[in-house]
Amino acid sequence: MNWLQVEGVVIAGHQVASGAATDSPYPAGTIALQTPAFQERGLDISVYHPATLNLSIAPYHLALKSPAYQFPHVRWTELCPPETFSFCDCQLSFAENVYSGLVYYPHPETKVRHFQPASLIEVLAPKIPDITYGTHLQLRLDPAQVKLTLKEA
Predict the structure, then answer these.
(1) CATH number corresponding to 4-127
(2) N or C: which end of the chain has fewer CB within 10 A?
(3) 57: left (phi > 0), else alpha (psi -120 to 50), else beta?
(4) Are 76 and 153 a contacting pair, CB within 8 Å?
(5) pTM listed for this prediction
(6) At 34, is the secondary structure helix, strand, or coil?
(7) To 10 degrees, the CA torsion angle through 120, 142, 17, 72?
(8) Count of beta carbons in the 10 Å neighbourhood of residue 86
(9) What are the domain boundaries of the chain?
């Protein structure tokens, strides 16, 4: 495949996906709570670390074209209204290793909290050794599923 490639920098997120946020109403983490809902719809995300890797791709932002998976109106908790989620294939290249993953995209128009900047991509991936905040890596994206555009000034 002819992947789109962009450098990503690991940054801190809201930490609700992993359950690490102390002020979160989801102590187990949103990924753990959402996993069964996605599995019922045909996507098994239990193969990934139960958190998202937050990557800044500034000055770019991602736009969906034709996601590998899209699930409208997913009710994964009683604490918020149903949300729409899309997932796109990706790869992370770090320390001479390549890891397959998924871009995790909760549609902003259906979210009620924990918004992200347009230049931030959340990725579901296996646990990657030696990744810390500030780590630079290569993110590869499927050009049939997404496009990258420069963020307007």
Answers:
(1) 2.40.30.30
(2) C
(3) alpha
(4) no
(5) 0.89
(6) helix
(7) 110
(8) 20
(9) 4-127
Q: Maximum distance among all alpha carbons in the chain? A: 42
Give the number of residues written for the chain.
153
* pLDDT over 80 (residue 147): yes
The structure tokens listed for 19 are: 């359950």
Closest CA to 10 of 140, 135, 139: 135
- The pLDDT mean for the chain works out to 88
**Residue recorded with tokens 């998924």:** 102
Q: Two tokens at 106?
A: 């909760």
- Report whether pLDDT(4) > 50: yes
Q: Could you report how far apart the first and last alpha carbons of the chain are, in Å?
A: 32
Q: Is the peptide bond between 129 and the residue preceding it cis, with omega within 30 degrees of 0? A: no
Whole-number Å distance between alpha carbons of 84 and 109 = 8
